[in-house]
DNA sequence: ACAAAAGTGTTCGCGCTACACCCATGC
DNA sequence: GCATGGGTGTAGCGCGAACACTTTTGT
């Protein structure tokens, strides 16, 4: 209980930044390639060390803004603490992992060593970062169906078809645009903008554009069972 | 990015240990009363500092076993990192909060300064521990309906009435024992033991005893919508 | 006119809630 | 017998999946 012989550790924050990229229509993760040892050449999650005057959440937001020019992270949440004693060499280091979501069609200026990679074919990863990425993937999948977290992956305005492609990329299976509309509408999450998108080159009816009414994280379907009466 | 001028911090683990106590039929939390400054007299969550050779999860389990003789914690999960710079005086300290669940009818030997308190009328709490407790409460409520987390609150064998009282205590509203049985049975979580409980003093049909078939955490109802086909 | 793509409506079924009814035991 | 409590059955319905049908555009 005395603080004298307490071991001190380095606290770092690491972000699994995900986006559904318009070109590939896949979930991709933001990684940077290490230029020096240890683990030189391997790919790492963006992040860094906690400063004295900030919380881990503040630190994570700051580091994303500073290092990879990501100011428009639409959602940022903790996914867990990674603390295996041998997870990195040198000073004992404990990491708080985060899930960060960037809307499609955002294309931030990235440093030269930084880029997007498909989440289901990760390059050789540094330290325990692959494990953290997998945890984030799992969290995102789980929350997509009972929260409004999809808003953080969609652009500000979108057609229902485009939105269903985003859901499909995350979940890995077909998502009916029809049902998607009804479910999100019933939950009060979807509003038509009144405008329409331009039709494709082969013609076709122009799609209506929609917007999410709520742009902050919210649990929209909290109870699988044991709902409170009324 | 050099490690030379990196600030080092103390990493601690803190547990919100909850149980539905048979006497009060309420959710109660395990707290100990601080005997010295800072925050002398206030109540604190059990926990302590991370050791060099352990993960935070291992540390939490160890500290609960050592300090409050809690070896039978049926469920232990991280609920988040609490890292406000001024959350405690002295060395910068970052806490990983845990939710721990103890089955009803367990009555571990506790130190003299340690005891159970009703969760919805917390005594004066030290540091940011009240906030951590609230987070844990919220997590438990949320997960009760779509996971099997209830197993960690129930004794090894129980009547359906007793189980429904446990669910009621956590959720704060009525839970129909009839429907509870059907739902848990359908999810394959419930098995009758074949034995029966003794009837109450006023008579009445003796209740059948049940057991949970699965005694590890599992998500039983992962999709509110967008289920994968087949 | 025809193809292409979007939007609407309908059917179906599952799973949860509510509640009535039947069963077993003590007095 | 009656009171007490446990267990079973059933009706209703909200929600989501699947899919056919209609509407609007370009060629």
UniProtKB/TrEMBL annotation, chains A, B:
Domain Nudix hydrolase: 9-140
Alphabetical list of Pfam families matching this protein: NUDIX (PF00293), WHD_NrtR (PF21906)
InterPro entries noted in UniProt: NUDIX_hydrolase-like_dom_sf (IPR015797), NUDIX_hydrolase_dom (IPR000086), WH-like_DNA-bd_sf (IPR036388), WH_DNA-bd_sf (IPR036390), WHD_NrtR (IPR054105)
Name listed for the protein in its UniProt record: NUDIX domain-containing protein
Species lineage: Bacteria, Bacillati, Actinomycetota, Actinomycetes, Nakamurellales
